[in-house]
Amino acid sequence: MLVNDRGDAVPAWLLGMVLCLMTAGAWAHGVSESDKGFLQGATGVHFLPYLYLGAKHMVTGYDHLLFLCGVIFFLYRIKEIGLYVTLFALGHSTTLLLGVLNGWHINAYLVDAIIGLSIVYRAFDNLGGFGTVFGFQPNKKAAVLIFGFFHGLGLATKLQDFALSPDGLVPNMIAFNIGVELGQLLALGMILVLMRYWRTTASFARHALTSNFALMSAGFVLAGLQFTGYISQ
């Protein structure tokens, strides 16, 4: 957690706004030119490179990190955190593998817009919006699983743009998926360390709600970028 010149923890909403700016400058599931060149030219089994690319995607995936931040924001027990993260990983892994191996062709802009809205949904839920506005509470676990499907599908649609070689595709996708889950554990660990520290300060009580408004704003920014891309394509 960042600390200002008075020794107080910098409000998490500030970090959320930084993430919002980051999402504004990056399309979801972006792939660097060097990684793109490798994906398009690789043939045969490349277990370790695909493992690395999967982990890199998760650690640098702003959409995934924002969603995970929202999911664990008010979770304190490790067992509960593990359950929600497992549900997300199950959904993400399923559509990532099935989407690539079965050649599901779905518009990437629309899928990524839904991913942006998943961040909005999670933050809105953290704010108690469903009970206050609509008078009911959707199943939190089911929502994480369902949105996990969309997060995995978003990456699957992006990978299909690179005309991956069928030679070694199955083991390569398994390696990539394992890398994604390893990257998720690494990113989650860093988030949990920051969250655990922040929760011990008075800043958490003051800025928890504001931080979720910032998360919601970041989700709207990401979704808006994708809808704009869909309209202008």
UniProtKB/TrEMBL annotation:
<keyword id="KW-0812">Transmembrane</keyword>
<feature type="transmembrane region" description="Helical">
    <location>
        <begin position="144"/>
        <end position="162"/>
    </location>
</feature>
<feature type="transmembrane region" description="Helical">
    <location>
        <begin position="106"/>
        <end position="124"/>
    </location>
</feature>
<feature type="transmembrane region" description="Helical">
    <location>
        <begin position="209"/>
        <end position="231"/>
    </location>
</feature>
<feature type="transmembrane region" description="Helical">
    <location>
        <begin position="81"/>
        <end position="100"/>
    </location>
</feature>
<keyword id="KW-0472">Membrane</keyword>
<feature type="transmembrane region" description="Helical">
    <location>
        <begin position="12"/>
        <end position="30"/>
    </location>
</feature>
<protein>
    <submittedName>
        <fullName>HupE/UreJ family protein</fullName>
    </submittedName>
</protein>
<feature type="transmembrane region" description="Helical">
    <location>
        <begin position="174"/>
        <end position="197"/>
    </location>
</feature>
<dbReference type="InterPro" id="IPR032809">
    <property type="entry name" value="Put_HupE_UreJ"/>
</dbReference>
<feature type="transmembrane region" description="Helical">
    <location>
        <begin position="50"/>
        <end position="74"/>
    </location>
</feature>
<dbReference type="Pfam" id="PF13795">
    <property type="entry name" value="HupE_UreJ_2"/>
</dbReference>
<keyword id="KW-1133">Transmembrane helix</keyword>
